[in-house]
Amino acid sequence: MAKENPSVKEPDEKDIKVEDEPKDWAAGLPGVYYSMKPAIEHMGIDRTRKTVLAMNQKHGFDCPSCAWPDPDKRKAFEFCENGAKAVTWEATPVVIPSEFWAEHSITELKERTEYWLGMQGRLTEPVYKPAGEDHYRPVSWNEAFSILGNKLQSLDSADEAAFYTSGRTSNEAAFLYQLFARGFGTNNLPDCSNMCHESSGWGMGQTIGIGKATVTYDDYERADLIIIMGQNPGTNHPRMLTALEECKETGGHIVAVNPLPEAGLKRYKNPQKVKGIIGHGTEIADQFLQIRLGGDMALLQAVSKRVLDAEAKNPGTVLDHDFLDKHCEGLEDLKEHLSHLDEQEVLEATGLRTEEIDELAARYLAAERVIITWAMGITQQKKGVETIKEMINLLLLRGNIGKPGAGASPIRGHSNVQGDRTMGIWEQMPPTFMDALGKEFSFSPPRKHGADVVESILRMRDGDIKVLVALGGNLVSAVSDTTMASAAMENLEMSAQISIKLNRSHLITGKEALILPCKGRTEIDIQETGEQFVSVEDTVCAVHPSWGSVEPVAPTLLSEPAIVSRLALATLGNKLDADWAGFEKDYDLIRDHISRVVEGCEDYNTRIRQEGGFVLANGPRDSRTFNTPTGKAVLTVNALESLERPEGTLILQTLRSHDQWNTTIYGHNDRYRGIKKGRHVVMVNPEDIVELGLEDGQNVDLHGIYEDGVDRVWSKIRVVSYPTPRGCAAAYYPEANVLVPLEHVADGSNTPVSKQIIVRLTPAVDTSTDKEDFTFLARKPSEAPGTRTETVGV
To answer: Is position 380 within any domain?
Structure first.
């Protein structure tokens, strides 16, 4: 079945093609074509049938892409374009042969793109890079575990190690992983949530006592109004478009608040309906507010003020006084604060007109059931936490939490990142969890808070963290400040990655490095006691089983629970009262422990086997109860602070192309935005292009401007005329991460601020090479005239 790695042509960024206009609708027959064509080409018809038709089905596997929930009644084709691409990427029978490692040095592989690396195929055997060498070499599993276990044991302190987790990890593997880390003696458990929805957890936790969505899947259909903020479902979670269509069909309205016009928020052609194939499809957004980057907080305050003004004009008819009196606190302080809101400041911060804000407020006032949903367009702002608190304020004013068709809905973009947090993957787990964990396994877990992603990188840089173990992911590409993050990784004594395919984090290594290959979620997992399944939690707190559907690409692969169990045994021995060998043989044993440690997961093995799994309890949603110090939801007062843009600069956001999933690049066509055959572009409003003295199609260098005085540069990037808000620009992640200082983070959550980067565009400096991948420099102001005074205060 397995095939050797193919010849992959590197893209030439000089061939970028830009269409005249972005697309104004999403999916339809092209969505089907671009789902199935690569699947059949790379996997063949039979493997395609066994995978994509089993995806998101009750007796199949959970999509390895986003965490969008599944309806109770599943369709025959319960997958989207990017879900099919994720499965094709994972379940490909193409494998990396043993000779690959001798043929390619790490230095050579660093010159390759993420796309090329991923296209080499599946990893199938452990490989090790000794200190001072430039090649990985295959090793046995026993040797690999011995090397890593001995290294961990040699550390002077457990806090000299960090254990990173990707959001694709199953509940079972995540629970074992955090147990291993804490049994080793550290809470250094950075994870991908630190870089995406951490702001949601902080903002919601401080106001309603839970950092998860307070809605169910069915609430989308029941809503009178859905406000979508900082979110592009057409690319990042396309199955959400079906739920939005269902809302429109039952009479609901939708407002899109986003810096860019996105095809999926304009019109949706559902490929499983006749009107989606030969008809016009469904208009999605009834109102589109093209907001200036960082203006969302001001908009929400302005709408809340209009709600309070409407109540003042007609007392007792606008606010939900019964709900506010019984379940909330802080209303009077909020009234006082918003009474001083400066409308002109709001207009400048948002880039909107008063009439547009009035229309949104009128829609909110007319709706009995309102959902506000958001993603990283909000969480990766400097004031992301406060902005989410303002969403909660607006919802609470009219009782839009804890009733059908209403609530707060952060949309997770990683398939089980929410489940991983539930299982204990967090550097700050509460005492109740730690008490239960210690009791269950007869040890004393460390209580000192550990390092998140940003803090871990800083400690790696300073030599305080010496070993990094990563369960999935591509940390060096995912995190901000590429230059500094790379240097920090190379300062490690050892890096070890548990991975499915090759990525850049395997090449930016510690002095020693290991790659441990694992089975994917699509693959059948046979252990000593029989076929196993794992479980995951979606974005609305539904927990369900996931069964692999195809044979593994190689017999040498181990599952994630098996790898974690063997590594823990090699490192800890019998330090804990934990049956590591038994966990690998029978995942029910893991779930038995979960049922006694994780709140809400009681009787886990029985409930997970129910048809469709089970839904975790959610106080705000289920009973209007709030786990806050006073037991009430908190209306908060948040100071409005606007982002100042120095003359001659733009505010940049990073975003995904349609042909990628997080740092995984499937291809080089951003089909809906009309940008093809390349990724090294910066999208700029045509009026800004003229004002800056540039031209559409010109190559420029992007300089990140920040108060630390370092001129971060991304070189030779093509300017693309695009309908962005005035003064704002956009570029693709992860390439543009080089422009984001590591310590430029959201207040409170410590999330990298990738949606508010001040940049200056200058004509590209001619270089002697046409090299296009990761062309970046870091220069001091003395080498970049004029930057010393270009500081930003937020």
So the answer is: yes
Q: Are residues 614 and 497 in the same domain?
A: yes
| 483 and 336 part of one domain | no
Q: Are strands 664-665 and 669-670 parallel, antiparallel or unpaired?
A: unpaired
Assign 3-class secondary structure to 637-705: CCCCCCCCCCCCCEEEEEECCCCEECCEECCCEEHHHCEECCCCEEEECHHHHHHCCCCCCCEEEEEEC
Identity of the residue numbered 459: R
**170 & 251 share domain:** no
Look at residues 59, 74, 91 and tell me which one is the last residue of a structural domain: 91
Token couple for 55? 């995806």
CA distance 48 to 51: 5
DSSP codes, 64-107? SS--PPPPSS--S----HHHHHHHHHHH-SEE--THHHHHS-HH
Cα separation, 681 vs 717, in Å, equals 5
Mean of pLDDT over the chain: 93
Across the strands, what pairs with 670? 675
Per residue in 223-253, pLDDT tens?
999 999 999 999 999 999 999 999 999 999 9
648 backbone φψ class: left, alpha, beta (φ>0; ψ -120 to 50)? left
Task: Write down which residue in 39, 64, 91 finishes a domain.
Answer: 91
| pLDDT at residue 775 tops 60 | no
d(CA 265, CA 234): 7
Which CATH number goes with the domain that contains 375? 3.40.228.10
Query: Rounded to the nearest 5°, which phi and psi values hold at 96?
Result: -85, 120
For 748-771, what is the HEC assignment? CCCCECCCCEEEEEEECCCCCCCC
Cβ-count burial of 32 within 10 angstroms (0-12 exposed, 13-18 middle, 19+ buried)? middle
* CATH number where 669 lies: 2.40.40.20
Into how many domains does the chain fold? 4
Domain identity same for 52 and 135: no
Tell me, yes or no, whether 657 lies in a domain.
yes
Q: How far apart are CA 317 and CA 600, in angstroms?
A: 38
pLDDT reading at 794 higher than 60: no
- Residue 414's pLDDT is 83
Domain that holds residue 54: 3-91
In whole angstroms, what separates CA 567 from the centre of its chain?
A: 27
CATH at 99: 3.40.50.740
Length of the chain, please?
794
Question: Angle at CA 149, nearest 5°, toward 144 and 152?
Answer: 130
Please tell me whether the peptide bond between 734 and the residue prior to it is cis, using omega within 30 degrees of 0: yes
Q: CB under 8 Å, gap of 24 or more: what pairs does 553-557 form?
A: 553/1, 553/2, 553/91, 553/92, 553/93, 553/95, 553/122, 553/124, 553/523, 554/2, 554/95, 554/122, 554/124, 554/125, 554/517, 556/124, 556/125, 556/141, 556/517, 557/124, 557/517, 557/518, 557/519, 557/523
Asked if residues 89 and 501 have their Cβ atoms less than 8 Å apart, the reply is yes
Token pair, residue 85, equals 């691409």
104 with 73, same domain: the answer is no
Strand partners, 269: 27
Q: What SS3 state is found at 192?
A: helix
36 and 63 housed in the same domain: yes
CA dist 422 and 432 (Å) reads 13
133 assigned to some structural domain: yes
Contacts of 295 (CB under 8 A, 6+ apart): 349, 350, 351, 352
Co-location of 296 and 339 in the same domain: yes
**Is 743 within the bounds of a domain?**
yes
Gyration radius from the chain CA atoms: 25
- Specify whether the CB–CB gap between 783 and 712 falls below 8 A: no
Q: If 0-12 CB within 10 Å is exposed, 13-18 middle and 19+ buried, where does residue 530 land?
A: exposed
State both tokens at 142.
Answer: 């026993």
**pLDDT-based confidence at 5, cuts 50/70/90?**
low
pLDDT at 352 over 50: yes
pLDDT for residue 78 is more than 90: no
Residues 617 and 718 occupy one common structural domain: no
